[in-house]
Specification:
The chain is an alpha/beta fold and 222 residues long. 32% of the residues lie in helices and 19% in strands. Strands 3-2-1-4-5-7-6-8 form an 8-stranded mixed β-sheet, with helices on both faces.
Length: 222
């Protein structure tokens, strides 16, 4: 698959899988399993979701019906192998997503990549913490703000792909305890942010927003 301007986050996910060819891919929040199909034949897949609705599980995939917190408390499905590519797309509350990213990083290879869905919200109502619409991104964008403030050692950008962006986190440090040790402090600060802060912000600085140009994004995930 070749593209210059990426049309949506599914296309970007597929391009990342084709380019990176991860040995182990972990997806938090599989729902119906649509995005699991982007994994390549040589990739082992672990999907985590408390209520998965996957009708047909691929041969290279293991679905664990647990919350992500419970899964990472005893991640035996990882078999001690490092995560090459992780995708956080679970409960759309930012502090949960932050924990998911912290746990993915703890079990990742240093040159691994973590992806976060729904980081460039469209409007206030669909970015609300409580869901009142069919389409809903929640307040996941705050996770990216937290990472950019508290983990400057990470590279954190948000690709401006429809419908609500896909964050790419690299330069991982599996030995870092910052997100665990300072979790309560981070939550207390970042929780104070509102939609007005997002509206007033330069998103290129606030959430590291970059255009959907594959020639720019590819080096980040290769």
């Amino acid at each position: 698959m070749i593209a210059e301007s990426v049309d949506n986050y599914y296309v970007l996910l597929a391009l990342i899988h084709e380019t990176r060819q991860p040995d182990l891919y972990v997806e938090i929040g599989v729902n119906k399993g649509d995005s699991l199909g982007f994994a390549q034949p040589g990739t082992r897949v672990v999907g985590v979701d408390p209520k998965p609705e996957v009708d047909e599980i691929p041969n290279n995939c293991t679905i664990v019906a647990q919350t992500s917190d419970d899964f990472f408390a005893n991640p035996k499905a990882l078999r001690g192998e490092p995560i090459d590519l992780g995708f956080a797309d679970g409960l759309h509350w930012w502090e949960q997503t932050l924990r998911d990213v912290a746990n993915l990083e703890r079990h990742a290879s240093p040159d691994g990549v973590i992806l976060i869905h729904d980081c460039n919200p469209r409007d206030e109502i669909t970015a609300a913490r409580e869901r009142t619409t069919v389409f809903w991104s929640g307040d996941v964008w705050k996770t990216v703000v937290a990472l950019r403030r508290y983990r400057p050692d990470l590279s954190v950008i948000t690709a401006d792909v429809p419908p609500t962006g896909l964050a790419i986190v690299t330069d991982l440090d599996p030995t870092s305890d910052v997100l665990f040790d300072r979790y309560n402090e981070i939550v207390a600060e970042i929780d104070q942010l509102t939609w007005a802060d997002m509206e007033a912000a330069d998103r290129s600085e606030f959430i590291g927003l970059v255009g959907p140009d594959w020639t720019t994004l590819r080096p980040l995930v290769a």
